[in-house]
Amino acid sequence: MNTLSAAVSLLLVAGPAPALGWTTVASPSEVPGDNYLYGADASGASNVWAVGGVYLPTGGTSHSLALRYDGTAWRSIARTGLPGNDTLRGVDAVADGDVWAVGEYRSGVIRYDTLVAHWNGSAWTREATPNGNPGGMNNLYGVAAAGGTVWAVGNYIDPNSPANRHKLILRRTGGTWRVSAAPVVAPTYESLAAVDATGPSDAWAVGAATAAFAPLILRWNGATWVSMTVTAPPGTGLTGVDARTPSDVWAVGSTSAAGGAQPYVAHFDGTSWRRVVTPALPGGGQLADVVALSSTSVVAVGRSNGAPLILRWNGTSWTRDATPASSNPFLTGAAAAGPGSIWAIGYRFELNAYANRTLTLLGSA
Fold this sequence. Notes:
The model is unreliable at 5-15 (pLDDT under 50). The protein is mainly beta. It has one helix at residues 5-11; strands spanning 21-25, 34-44, 47-55, 63-69, 74-76, 86-95, 98-108, 111-119, 124-127, 138-146, 149-157, 165-173, 176-179, 190-199, 202-209, 214-220, 225-228, 236-245, 248-255, 262-268, 273-275, 286-294, 297-304, 307-313, 318-320, 330-338, 341-350, 355-364. It contains one helix and 28 strands. The strands form seven sheets. Strands 1-28-27-26 form a four-stranded antiparallel β-sheet, with no helix packed on it. Strands 2-3-4-5 form a four-stranded antiparallel β-sheet, with no helix packed on it. Helices cover 2% and strands 58% of the residues.
């Protein structure tokens, strides 16, 4: 999800944007432990956020990880106000003192509760949120704020049938979080991975439905959620969405194919969704997030065959950007920090420490 989409698109000249050059930027990691970044967003070049979790060696307690780039360097943000034993998976940076983060925290032996926290510029405040399964597993993966409404999406395990998973949509209005009802597409398996919104009457949530995986796309029209369809092979799931305008929305993920998963991209033009063909990748690949700067400049990030994967749309076709080498990396999120500046975040394996460390790449025109 990209807060800067509308503003950035106004700054871009007509025609395809120039290719980006990608460099690795140092980011903090906690030692010991495995460090993962899962979600990113920005409201400007000096307010870029990445969130995730730190998983300590056997016997330790995991906790969330929040990093902020202030225009000069990435710095760790204190976890004061967060519950502990938690993970942050999605973030929406509205402004310097207005940042939303979501995830889950462990509240019992086999129980995880939803987690929503707000950063006011100096500290986190955790907000009370409902759970789909009050005594079981609940997870939030994406968050989006627009026009005074905040959305958070994820899933929960059916308390009556642990083999079933159901989508979970939370909506914040008037300072209170409530479950937002949506049509059931697949009774036994639905999960939402990402959400974006252009305003209080236009929001999008994407994920996967059915055990065999099919794209799950929901649109909020100001009164209710409506299910939408897109052509996709069996085994396709969506993991990222960016709504630049109500008639220019991108969604990415992966689809099953001979030899392994391949990237999958779909676009909404204001009337319907259609698949946008991506190049076949030797060794396969998958996309995790997408940022749409304009109709001729879209960047999708993920992983392919043990290397970072960054695909760029120029208005006609997708091409793969060259990226710095990393050890078994996975790019999990992306954020626009200006008309010619995009961050890609995730994690990489550090052999010397034999642990995963945070990974942040900056793409500049």
